[in-house]
Predict the 3D structure of the following.
Amino acid sequence: MRVTVLSVAGPLSVFLLIAVSLFIVWMLVALWAMKTAIGKRPDRPLEVIEKDPNTAWHRFNKEIHEGVDRIDAMPKTEIYTKAHDGITLGGILIEHPSPRATLIMFHGYRSAGENDFSCAASFYHSLGFNLLIVDQRTHARSGGKYIGFGVLERHDCKAWVWEIHKRYSKDLPIIITGVSMGASTVLMAGELDMPENLIAIIADCGFTSPKEIIASVIKKRYHIPPQIIMPGMNVWAKLLAKYSFDEISTCDTLKNVKVPVLFIHGRADDFVPCYMTERAFEACVTEKEVIYVENAGHGESYLTERERCESTLKAFVERQLEKFRSAL
């Protein structure tokens, strides 16, 4: 009997050893994938756009760099605030001599506000807006170890809105806008407790949730089923970054949004699929408007059809400003 027990226990032990080893390898790969996706790393310089023809927006190289130069030439002040979890958040404030509103601008994933709003910044400033170009957490002036895909950043957005509310008169309206992950940030922030002078949200090519966009990228870029690696990534995200990839979605928060929303998305976007804005637009319960731009890739709508976007943006913000003034 003793020999029989040993003969069974031997293969079973080997099986358990292999299973445990494979699990450890899987979790280590998941940790690497999680840190690659959301871990802090040096920001990519703007010069990469010029040198790499495969980089998004390469065909708008000239316009982007001219826009960055215009922002650099504007008088500006570095300002800081504290996030809900104690992280220091930084940005640059470009004040208008006779402001009609303050626009708080949130850039996209591993990007910079000076890049993402390079061309639109001067347009908004010409409308009489103060511009607060925020560095999202883990980027440039802002602290933090992990990107939150909007789940963490939505609370940062709230902190910035209240910071601007305290800095200026409560009669000066505030608008929040974002591109890509920045768009998801402002859409997810829309349901939070905000001051009454927050009057509108503008969201350009935002994704619905971290889970959906990460799964989409894994499937499209790496050609593997996302369900193989994402559960492990999510475990590490909960342990280290203190949030879950499936914790929140714009389709959920927009059921509770309190201010009007203008959505923008390019039909040719191959990074954040256009259907994500379609679903968010459908879920939005407040006053809403949408611009779809044919032949525009990710974040390229304004650059592709500038006149149409500017006329729609101007009409939208003027309408919200008029409503706010009428209510005073």
Summary: The mean pLDDT is 92.
